[in-house]
Amino acid sequence: MPEHAVSLSDTGLVDLLDRVVRQGAVINGDVIITLAGVDLIRLNLRLLLRGISDSWEVPR
Amino acid sequence: MNGLCAYLITRDHHLELPTPEPYLITHGDVGILVAETDVDRFALAEAELTPDSPVVSLIRQHDAVVRAVFATEPVLPLRFGTMFTDRRAAEQLLSEHHDALRERLAEVADHREWGVRVTARVSEPPIPPSTQNMSGTNYLLLRQRQLTAADQARREHAVAAATVHLGLAEHASDSTRRDRPGLLLDGAYLVRKTNEPAFHAALDRLATELDAQGITIERTGPWPPYSFTHLELAGAHA
């Protein structure tokens, strides 16, 4: 998996990505063009969110 | 390949948008905001999530469009990357789900989403006593004390997170919490605009109380109701 997926340290941007990419109404069926690229973004985001805990657990 | 990039569902109304696109496709009282798009722009094999990457600017653009409409109208944001095959597909979806969409729009009207993150500040770990000359019994006692302290901290954190969530949910029409590693609470609250003063007063009160326990509360928002659309719509060509 690409390592840059966990390189984002801007939590404001993470909040934005989490909402825009993971939340929101979902439409299914053959009215929709499904895009592998977008699924990859979702996968990266899940990795990213998992990676964030590391940065928050380091003593500041 | 061309498709219709879809941003949100809203009421059928005159939209003051600065450009001819995106535009509203309507059916009855509801409309879906779309723009003609080259689908390949979204088929990003190397989808880098860095602040300046092309995909992140597409995501910001999606949010900017949602916010522009949200400023004056209730919206149901669609998940990023929703592409209709054509206009007829969008119209058909609206006609099939018209009543449910209208109802949900009425529920989120005059509401905004607020995000709340609760984290425990990491305290300096006490310097461990040297265990070199310690008897076996004393060593076990020390380990036990350390484990008990960690256990107690975990329990206190869980109680703090639940206190914040319940205390804020009381002022919200809807609420949800997500599991995010490293956070005691990642909550989202759908708050009626007239309840916002009470919501923020409760949040300030909780933040002051928990600060003494080494717990920090951060708020984000206001957001369009991304976390409260609760819709999974099936659409199929007849």
Q: Can you give the mean pLDDT of chain A?
A: 75
Q: What form of chain A results from the Cα inertia axes?
A: elongated
Biggest sheet architecture of chain B: 5 strands, antiparallel
Radius of gyration of chain A: 14 Å
Series of secondary-structure elements of chain B, N-terminal to C-terminal: EEEHEEHEHEEHEE
Total number of helices of chain A: 2
Query: What share of the residues of chain B lie within helices?
Result: 25-40%
Strand content of chain B: 25-35%
Number of strands of chain A: 1
Given the C-alpha coordinates, what overall shape of chain B results? elongated
Distance separating the two termini of chain A: 28 Å
> What string gives the helices and strands of chain A in order?
HEH
Task: List unreliable stretches of 5+ residues of chain B.
Answer: none
How would you sum up this structure, described in words?
The complex is a heterodimer of chains A (60) and B (238). By secondary structure, chain A is mainly alpha-helical. Chain A is 57% helix and 5% strand. Chain A contains two helices and one strand, in the order H-E-H. Chain A has helices at 11-22, 36-57, and one strand at 26-28. The radius of gyration of chain A is 14 Å and the shape is elongated. Chain A starts with 10 loop residues before the first helix and ends with a helix. The model of chain A is unreliable at 1-6 and 55-60 (pLDDT under 50). Chain B is an alpha+beta fold. Chain B has helices spanning 54-70, 87-108, 136-169, 196-211; strands spanning 2-11, 23-27, 30-38, 75-77, 83-84, 111-120, 174-178, 185-192, 215-223, 232-234. In chain B, strands 1, 2, 3, 4 and 5 form a five-stranded antiparallel sheet that branches. Chain B has a four-stranded antiparallel sheet with strand order 7-8-6-9, with helices on one face. The longest helix of chain B has 34 residues, at 136-169. Chain B starts with a strand and ends with a strand. The interface between A and B is large, with 48 and 60 residues. Strand 1 (26-28) of chain A pairs parallel with strand 10 (232-234) of chain B.
